[in-house]
Amino acid sequence: MGALTFDPHLRNVSIDGKSVILHGRELMLLDMLMRHAGRVVSRQVLIEEIYGFADSVEPKAVNLLVLRLRRRLKSCARASKFTRRAASDTC
């Protein structure tokens, strides 16, 4: 993957300068993981932080959210390697 930048205040994500479109919980997950870089974050903590209510969320919901985020970031990283960037390009 290329250089990932994330501004949590503006909710902007980019890879190699190319904007990446992430939605609500994807942004929350990326924020959590970046704030805890290099450390393990338990599923329970992710559920509480991202969903706000631990009792009614299936544990696999976190798995699916992580999968969606990985796919979106990988897709944009590949696109930034093989396409020419225009100022308005987004993934």
The secondary-structure class comes to alpha+beta
- Given as residue ranges, the uncertain stretches (5+ residues, pLDDT < 50) are 82-87
Q: What's the total count of β strands?
A: 3
Share of β-strand residues: 5-15%
Helix amount: 40-55%
Number of domains: 1
Assembly state (oligomeric): single chain
Count of runs of 4 or more consecutive helical residues: 3
Structure description:
The chain has 91 residues and is an alpha+beta fold. Helix content is 49%, strand content 12%. The protein has helices at residues 24-35, 43-51, 59-82, and strands at 4-7, 12-15, 18-20. A three-stranded antiparallel sheet has the order 1-2-3, with helices on one face. The model is unreliable at 82-87 (pLDDT under 50).
